[in-house]
Amino acid sequence: MNASHEKKTRGGIRVQGKSPIAAPPRVADPQRRANVREGSPTNSATSTNTTKASPGGGVAVGTPPHESEDAEDVDRSARDRKRIGELEKETLVLQEEFEKELTLLSHKLTHESETAAFWQKKYTALHQAFLKTDTDLKVLKQETEGTEGRDRDVKTRISSLILDRDAFREAFNEAMGEVRMREEEGRGLRDQVRSLKEFISSSSKGVEQVSDEGAGEVMQRLGNGLQNWVISNFRRVKIDIESLPDEIRDQISELVPTYIPIAAISKIYLIQSLISMVLVQKIFQSYFAGLPEEEAEKFKATEETLSRYGSAESLNQWRSTTLSILHKTAPQSLLAETDNTITSILHRINTLLEALTSVPTNPARDASLKTLISNAIDLARLLRVQKAVFSIIMPEILEHQRTVFDTSEMEDIGGGSEDDEDAEIGKREVRCVTFPGIIKHGDENGEQAHLRNVVSKARVLCAPD
Question: Which residues lie in Low complexity bias regions (predicted)?
């Protein structure tokens, strides 16, 4: 490649007669400069010789004109050849320098091409990286814009939620304030309800309504206590009916008309029957045990008056409410009257038993009997304050009248079974009643008076077959 290039350059120099590239000052030929310096005197001498002429302006004497012209042409040709030779030498030098410079530049061009290719690749890689980065940047900008949009939406939503929260908080505070007011009203209402309950408990319902089972259990304990008291104190005594005073005889006959045949069968049953009849008359049949007689009569009169204007249910509620007041205050307000009632009953029982058995009383026997009498009073009061009507079953046995055993209301303490054939057809005869029973009329609210329930059966002694 360099050779062809050199040939073309050399050819071009020959045609044009000069170098296509100007010679730099640093490559000027020293020989040329010497020749130039040397050519100056020659030229001067030539010029001097040439210009010599006659003063008159003609040709010098002795020299023919054509020879002078030939000599001048020869000299000129020699100078031209010399000049051409110098120029050719200078051209060769310049050509060599040019080739060197061209080779150097070619190497530099190759290096620069490689460098340019390297940087082109680098540029291409960087441009691709730039494009990728720019694409990523655009994507990130879009995502950022989307995120900013979402952030704006979230901030807007948060602001809305904050406003809602503030509104809810305000509403909650108002609601809580209203709740507190309602709670205060509720507490006030509860206090009122409590007061009303207390009032109703004290005035309307009285004491707690006793169940049938509870009343029956209390009655059974009272009957067992009486039986145990009689057995423990009069188990070995003898009864002398013939020596009884007339007054005592009349009292015993009033209480137990069939006392003579009963005494022949069992003295224990006779004594139980006597005491039970006294308890029924003095306690269970009284309007309210322990209440003075004149006060009891006033209550009875009021109840009879009300019965003409109101229903039986209303009358039962009135009686329960009124007597509940007495029942609550009875331990204090009726204490003296209750003690007098207990003393009076104790004195009458002891009078009858001393005359019948000739056994004097003693403090231990009286104390235990007082407890029985007091328990009977408490039970009688409890039954009276109920809205339902509780009545005492104490059949009266008369000599001229036959009393038939009733399995629904009576319990035979003589050992007879309720399933016996005579009991079923009503042929068993009752000799005496040793302890009363209880029947309930109506429900717990004093209504439905047609309802009837035997709470406790009366204990009776039937005649043997």
Answer: 40-54
